[in-house]
Write a structure and sequence with these properties.
Elements (H helix, E strand, L loop, with lengths): L21 E3 L3 E5 L4 E5 L2 E3 L2 H23 L12 E3 L8 H5 L18 H5 L4 H10 L4 E6 L5 H19 L10 E6 L10 H12 L8 H10 L3 E6 L6 H10 L7 E6 H8 L8 E5 L4 H9 L8 H12 L4 H5 L3 H10 L18 H10 L1 H5 L13 H17 L16 H28 L1 H24 L12 H4 L2 H25 L6 H7 L1 H11 L3 H4 L10 H10 L12 H35 L1 H22 L2 H16 L5 H10 L3 E4 L2 E4 L2 H9 L3
Parallel strand pairs: 6-9, 6-10, 7-8, 8-9
Antiparallel strand pairs: 1-4, 2-3, 5-10, 11-12
Length: 698
Amino acid sequence: MTDPGSDRPTERPDGPAQVSGNVFHGPTALQVGAGNTMNVRYDVTPLSPLDASADELAAAVRRQWEQEAGLRRLLEPAPLPVRWQVSVRKAAGKVTGATAEGGRARFTPLPGLAAVTRDGLRQGGGLTELHAAYGGLASGRLLLVGPPAAGKTAAAVLLLLDALRYRANTAPPDRRALIPVPVMLSLHGWDPAAESPAEWAAGRLSREYTLFRGRDGRARALELLEAGRIALFLDALDEVRGKLRTAMVSALESADFRLVLVSRAKEAVLTAKRARLSGALALEILPVRPADAAAYLLNPLPELPPPSWDALARGLLDAPASTLAQALSGPLAISLLRDVYGDTDPVDELLDTGRFPTARSIEDHLLDHAVTAAYTARPGRPRPRHSPEAADRALRHLAVRLTEQDTHDLLWWHIPSWADRRPRAIAVGTVVGLLYGVLAFPMIWRMSGPVWACVLGPVAALASGFAAARLNRRSGDPQPLPSAGWRDIFSRSAVRAGVVQWLMTAVGVWLTFGLLTDHTLPAWLCFLCTAPTGFGTTLVYGRGYELVAGTFIGVGTGSWFDGVRRDHSSPPVVDTRSIGPRDVWLHHIRLRLLLGLLVGLSVAVLIVPVATWTNGFWAGAPVGVGAGLWAGLTAGPVTNLGVATALTAVQLSAAEGTPVRLMSFLEDARRRNLLRATGPAYQFRHARLQERLAAAPR
C-alpha cells in the first residue's frame, strides 16, 4: 500500500511494515493465478555496526539525561518556556557566516528540517525554534549565552532531549543515520595541547558509556565522531580559565561534528576577543516573562489556588516591572520559590517591598531557605536521611572549602587534604602494626622459640605500623586519580612489555641456577616464581606504577623507574569510566583493593616457592607470606584514595559535624537538587548557592 504520488510504503503501527532494529524496504507483493496465491517478499537491510552503535548511544544518553532532568525538575511540572534571540553581544561573528546564505554550507540541514536563514533567526523563538536552529544551521556551531542564572544549561538539556526525541520518533527511519546523537559533556579535564577535540571526546565517551568499553570501544567512538554521527553539547565553558578557554575554542575549529557551547555572556565575549569560533551563532537566553512565571508557579496547584499564591500571581501579572518580577526572571529563582514555599505557606510575603526592597534580597532569601526546604519532610517526597540543621552545616562547610580553593568543582579525591593527615596515618599504622604483630608472633615462636617471639614480635609490629603510617600520609595531598580503570593499567603495550620481561627473567633465572650454582631449579618453578616480575613490569608501564613502587616486584623508585614511567605511562587522569562521582569513588576503591590483592599474591608467589624449595616450608613460607601481606596492604588500603576519603569523612564529622558517610550525603544532596554532577565532580546547583552558603555565619 502506498501514498498517492509516492512509491514508498505507508507505515502502519500495527502492520507488518515494522521491523525493529532494521531498515525496511518492502513489502513487495506478487499475486498469482485466480487470486488464491500470494507471494510476499520483505527486503530487510540490517543496521551497520556504526548505525547500531549510534542507536545504542542515543538510548543511553536519553536515559541519562531524562533522569538528570528529573532530578533538576526540568520536566515535572511542565518546563518553563525557553525564549531566545540572536545575541547583540560580540560573542560570535556575523549571522551570515553561520547561515552561509549564498555560500557553501558546512553542514546540510537535518532530515525534515529547513535551512536556517538570517530573517528567520531575527524573529527569535522558543524551544521548537531552537531545535530548528540547531538542526538547520549551516555552520553547525551554536553558542548559548546569557547572564548568570538565566537557564542556559537547562535550555541545553531540554534541547538535547528534543533532539533525541526527534531522532527517535520524528525523523524517517531510513534517514536516521543522518541525524547525529547529541551528547553533553563538561569541558573539565581537556588539555587541547595534548588531544584533539575528537580524541578527547572519544576518551570521555569510552569512560562514561559502557557501550564504548572494551578493546575497540574508543576507536568506535572516534569513528562516530569523525563521521559526524555525534553532536557535542559542551557545558561550563565559562568555568575554564582564560588562556585554557581560548585554547579550547581555537582547537574546536577543527571539529568535524556539530557543536553547542554553553557559556555566560561575559566570558563568551572575553574569549571572542582572543579566539572566535568561526561560523558560530550566539543565541541569548532571554529572561522569563512574568506571565510564564505565574503560569509555571500555579500549574501544580488546584484550580482555585490558595490566596497567598493567587496574590503572588496577580502581583506578577499586574506589575511586570516590579521587584518580584525582576527576581523571578530566571529559572533558578522560580524553581527555588517552588521548593521553599509549600501550598499553604505565606508566599505572598515576597510582595512586601519593605522586607524585600531589591530583586537580590528576594533571591538571597530563597537561597537561605533552600537547604531547609530540601531536607524538610513533605508528602510525596522521600524521607530525608539528615536533619535540615545537619545538612545545612555540612553544605556550608563544603561551600567554604570550595570558595577558599577558588573552585566550583568538589573533587572527592581532594577531600583527604581537608583534614590533618596525622590522626589518619596513626590509625592506619596502628591497625597494620597490630595485624603484623598478631601474625608475626606465632611464626617467630615456631621458627625461633618464645624468647625471640617476644623480642621480635613487637619490633615487627612497630616497624610495619610506622612504615604504613608514613605511606598513608602521602594520600593527604591534593592529587589527580592515578588510574582510570583496568584498560588504562593493562594496556596492550604494558601487557606486551610484561610478558617479554617475564619470559626473559624466567629463562635467565633457570640458566643462572643451572650454570653458576649447585642448586638446579625445575623450569616450571622458574617460570612460576618469575611471573610476578612480568606483572610488576605491566603495572610500571601502565598506570599502576604507584601500586608496586617500593615493593619486591617494583622496578625501583630511582631515576630509571621515573624514566620508564615518563616514557611509557600516560599522564594521570581526573575522571573514570563511571558517570557519577559516587560511582567513581566506589569504582576506585574496588579497583585499588583488588589490585592490591594481586600485588600481594604476586610478591608471595615470587618468594614462597623458591624459599620453601630450598629451606623447607616452615622456614620459607612465613617470609613470603609476610612480604606478600605487606605489599598487598601498601598497594591496596593503606594508599587507597577512596579509603583515605572515607577516613577523612570521619575526621570531618568529629571536627565539623558533617555526616560520617559523606559520599552518600553528597549523592543525596544531588537527588534533592542542591548539588549537580559534572562528570566525576560535584558542583553546587548554582554558583550563587555556593556563594550564599559560604558567606553565611557558621
